[in-house]
Amino acid sequence: METAREIKKQEQYIEKVQEINRGKKLKYNILTMGCQLNENDSEKLCGMLEKMGYIKTEDFKNADLNLFNTCCVRENAEDKLFGKLGELKRIKEEKGTIVAIGGCMMQEKHITDKIKESYPFVDIIFGTHTLHKFPEDLYKALVEKRKQEDILDIDGEIYEGLPIKRNSNIKASVTIMNGCNNFCTYCIVPYVRGRERSREPREIIKEVKELAKQGYKEITLLGQNVNSYLRVEKEKGKKFEEYQGVNSFATLLKAINKIEGIERIRFVSPHPKDFTDDVIDAIAESDKVCKLIHLPLQSGNTKVLKEMNRKYTKEQYLNLVEKMKTKIPNLTLSTDIIVGFPGETDEEFEDTLDVVKRVKFEQVYMFIYSRRVGTPGDKMENQIPEDIKHKRFNKLKELVESQIEENNQKYIGTVQKVLVEGTSKNNENMLTGRTDSNKVVIFEGDTSLINKIIDLEIVSEHIWYLKGKILNKECE
Ligand code: SAH
Ligand code: SF4
Ligand code: F3S
After folding, report:
1. Average pLDDT, the chain
2. Residue 252 maps to which CATH number?
3. Which of 66, 295, 327, 439 is 20 to 30 Å apart from 278, CA to CA?
4. How many domains are contained in the chain?
């Protein structure tokens, strides 16, 4: 198999770099931008780096290698990267730090051109389809002392078996598919991540079983459009091997639900248009699947949704929510919303507020529309002035915050199952964990409770967290 041979080759580069670095105690710093898929890619990059002899540091000024894993979904990520590169210039001159940049932004030619022109000290640039080749790129940068540019415009293969250094030992992410075929008109992701391709069921099950063995309690299945898992493969007649009955997203959820040791299953992001009945039934039937579902709305207005190429109407979205509420007991919902898409009128924006009022989301991730080069949205003539976008954003934020406060009240006096994640960042004497609905709960308790699911009575609320009290020690 081609990909297995490629991974073997990279393992040899890992050994070569390890040899060069032996005894040097070199340090690396990584800055990850963007979504959980990028976080998961960074865990793989950290896995490779640590195998090559680098030790992680949070102090980016004292690192021997600075790595950026970039996002380009909105403009602010670009400002952040260029700001950091500006700071690094002097450090590079003084210390000779290796500077490597990867991720989605590197798939944009106007960005790599700018880096080469304005920040010529960058050693390695790599894209989303060549992440697995990082050991080779690094080896060549170290030995040949030449700049490495490793970007592919065609869809990369799925590479199994990369080393991984995970951020947590309680919760783990598992990428189940790469890319996106939806081409929402505002979004750059399909251009920088390529077309949809799903991992083999056998590989996913194997990874989750391994995580369960290592003691992980919660897993999050990741993809740009998780509920179309294996759809393209089936439609295009591409080969995949059905394994333990897994041939769709619904069957994948059911199979993972059976894996002993895993207690919670989450997934992001599904697309409303692909929320078929089998997926709804699988969520309802599978006790480990958390009942907080992320259901990206983007806009509540049918005309705007059409312009966005979202393929559902306001009514279809609301009907789907109703159907899910009926079929899935204790369902809670979170969503993504964009304000100020080209041509959006005040009236059309009111529809978004209307949907928010009706659905009463547990959490809303709100974004101001950001023009992305190469997307149809960027070419639309009726762009919304910044001040109007900000006004709408603030109006939505106010509504969302008042709803969250109201919703938090409902938790008081209830008993919630909480996965204990560790001591609270703000108060060492308190523990922190999350409910099924992903709410943070802070409470007093013994550190032996970490990585267990316990019953907590909710005693008070604050906008971003709840306070709890232990009921009984542990529930099996
Ligand atoms: N595939 C996922 C996530 C895509 S990116 C999904 O479809 O839900 C995460 C969120 O960023 C999107 O849901 C959208 O709300 C937001 N987003 C994407 N492009 C954007 C843009 N150009 N401007 C503002 N927000 C954007
Ligand atoms: Fe972007 Fe739409 Fe694909 Fe999500 S579904 S990644 S918003 S194009
Ligand atoms: Fe950003 Fe790439 Fe994720 S553009 S949102 S990091 S897929």
Report:
1. 95
2. 3.30.750.210
3. 439
4. 4
Residue 155 lies in a domain: no
Distance (Å) from CA 152 to ligand 3 centroid: 17
* pLDDT at position 476: 44
Residues 128 and 252 in one domain: no
Instruction: Give the atom of ligand 2 at the shortest distance from the alpha carbon of 180.
Output: 3
From 359, 376, 407, give the residue that closes a domain.
407
pTM of the predicted structure, to 2 decimals: 0.96
Note whether 55 and 139 are same-domain residues: yes
Q: Strand, helix or coil at 157?
A: coil
Atom 18 in ligand 1: which residue has the minimum CA distance?
187
Answer whether residue 7 shows pLDDT above 50. yes
Question: Is the distance from CB of 12 to CB of 52 less than 8 angstroms?
Answer: no
Is 161 domain-assigned? no
Mutate to test the pocket of ligand 3, among 30, 36, 39, 72 (most ligand atoms within 8 A of CB): 72
337 lines ligand 2 (CB under 6 A): no
Closest-CA residue, ligand 2 atom 5, reads 182
Give Cα separations from 451 to 259, 263, 454 (angstroms): 17, 11, 9
For CA atoms 425, 426, 429, 435, give the dihedral sign: negative
pLDDT average, residue stretch 450-467: 95
Let me know if residue 263 belongs to a domain: yes
Encode pLDDT of 192-243 as tens digits: 999 999 999 999 999 999 999 999 999 999 999 999 999 999 999 988 999 9
Shared domain for 36 and 174, answered yes or no, is no
Range of the domain at 345: 291-407
Mode of pairing for the β-strands spanning 65-70 and 98-103: parallel
